[in-house]
Each structure stands twice: as structure tokens, then as C-alpha cells.
């Protein structure tokens, strides 16, 4: 078990504001590991375009073959390799992943970021990343896929919840306060 690093897992539905949490954490000296990068890399290795359908299919196949914590297990070495003593892991999708990180890092905390479906859809639609939905139906399908692997349970069990419905500046203040509380908890 690694007892040196403070590791913060981050869960949230697509478009909830995980990127804003990550940007804020990075500005506070956190290294960043993005779980979705593992899935996107695997999708590209298979020669598939990065569409919502392909990335979702690969995510489900990885979990089916490697178990519900496979992506977390692939991220643990990436967390260990970070030079910073504080790391945020973006993209927790299940309690199995939470347990994998907790078993490996004694100073692990879980944050969830929440926003309404309407706010999330508008953010994703305007972001226009290759795996973002281009319509409500694709958005809903992605939500259902994310929930099917246990994301709702991870969000429900988070130690800290940040609601991201207001101005960006207000959310940044909440993120900074939450990270300060986590650091104080583990520095005791």
C-alpha cells in the first residue's frame, strides 16, 4: 500500500464539471491521471475512431474481460509515477474502482461533481470533443451506459459532493475548499 500520496478520485456524469475540478486541482499542484485516457488509448489501438459508440463499447469490453476495476488497475501505476504528492484521478466509474484505489493508496478520498442533465447536455454539446454526443438521444444512451457500470453508486458514496449549477467562479471556490478539507484530513 502506498502511504505517501494523497489520491483524490473524481466521479461525475459526463458534462458535470470534472474538467473544471481537474483544472482547479492542477493549479493547486495536483498531478492528473485521466481514466478515460486508458479507454481512448485502447480504442485507438484497436484502430477505431473515437466516437461515443466506439469508446463506450471498448469501455464495456475492457470491464467485461478484465473485471469491474480493470481501468483503475491500469491507472494505479500512472498515479505512482507522478512526481507530485497529490494526484487527482479523473473518471471514477464504479465502487469497484474506488475499492481498487483505496486498497492501494491509504490516503484516498472520493469527490463527486453533480449537474442537472440539461446543464450537462449543453456543456457537452458545446464542448464538441470527438466522443461527445451530437444529440439528446446519444447523450441519454451515454448516461445509461455510464450508469450501467456503477457510476451512480460511486457518486452516491462520495465523501464530498460539489454541485456545479452556478457560475464557474463559484464552483472553483467549492473545489478549492473541498481539496483543502481533504488535504487537512490526510495531513493530521
The gist of it:
The chain has 9 helices and 5 strands; from the N terminus they run βαβαααβαβαααβα. The chain is of the alpha/beta class and 188 residues long.
How far apart, in Å, are the first and last alpha carbons? 19 Å
Fold-level CATH name: Rossmann fold
Shape: globular
Q: How large is the radius of gyration? A: 16 Å
> Which residues sit in consecutive blocks of at least 5 with pLDDT less than 50?
none
Percent of residues in helices comes to 55-70%
**Which architecture per CATH?**
3-Layer(aba) Sandwich
Please provide a written account of the structure.
By secondary structure, the chain is of the alpha/beta class. The chain has one domain (2-187): P-loop containing nucleotide triphosphate hydrolases (Rossmann fold), CATH 3.40.50. It is built from nine helices and five strands. It has helices at residues 18-27, 35-45, 52-66, 70-81, 95-104, 117-127, 136-148, 151-156, 168-187, and strands spanning 2-11, 31-34, 86-92, 105-114, 160-163. It has a five-stranded parallel β-sheet, with helices on both faces. α3 runs parallel beside α7. The longest helix has 20 residues, at 168-187. The radius of gyration is 16 Å and the shape is globular.
Amino acid at each position: 500500500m502506498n502511504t505517501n500520496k494523497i489520491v483524490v478520485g473524481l466521479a461525475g456524469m459526463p458534462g458535470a464539471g470534472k474538467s473544471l475540478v481537474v483544472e482547479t486541482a492542477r493549479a493547486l499542484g495536483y498531478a492528473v491521471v485521466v481514466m478515460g485516457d486508458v479507454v481512448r488509448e485502447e480504442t485507438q489501438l484497436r484502430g477505431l475512431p473515437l466516437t461515443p459508440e466506439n469508446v463506450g463499447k471498448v469501455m464495456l469490453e475492457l470491464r467485461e474481460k478484465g473485471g469491474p476495476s480493470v481501468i483503475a488497475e491500469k491507472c494505479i501505476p500512472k498515479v505512482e509515477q507522478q512526481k507530485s504528492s497529490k494526484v487527482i484521478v479523473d473518471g471514477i466509474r464504479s465502487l469497484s474502482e474506488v475499492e481498487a484505489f483505496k486498497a492501494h493508496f491509504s490516503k484516498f478520498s472520493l469527490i463527486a461533481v453533480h449537474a442537472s442533465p440539461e446543464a450537462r447536455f449543453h456543456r457537452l454539446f458545446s464542448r464538441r470533443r470527438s466522443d461527445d454526443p451530437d444529440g439528446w438521444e446519444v447523450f441519454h444512451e451515454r448516461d445509461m451506459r455510464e450508469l450501467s457500470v456503477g457510476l451512480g453508486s460511486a457518486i452516491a458514496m462520495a465523501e464530498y459532493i460539489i454541485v456545479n449549477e452556478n457560475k464557474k467562479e463559484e464552483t472553483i471556490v467549492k473545489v478549492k475548499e473541498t481539496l483543502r478539507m481533504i488535504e487537512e484530513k490526510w495531513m493530521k
